[in-house]
Amino acid sequence: xxAIVYYTKLNSLPDxxxxxxxxFIDFLFQKINPEKKNNIKSNKKMFPRFGSxxxxxxxxxxxxxxxxxxxxxM
Length: 74
What we know:
By secondary structure, the protein is mostly helical. Helix content is 38%, strand content 0%.
């Protein structure tokens, strides 16, 4: 079969099935070349940026206060 037949069949599917077919094609490419983690857009390693988790963690106001559990050792 040639590419035109594949394209015609893929194009005749509903959108959801087209997405599933593309996912399966990506799976097949990953099966052929497993060290390439299907990251065609960028081969750069992603690093977290400073401040990217701002607001995700809350620290109580008494965080630096001594703990009551250690009073007998002080």
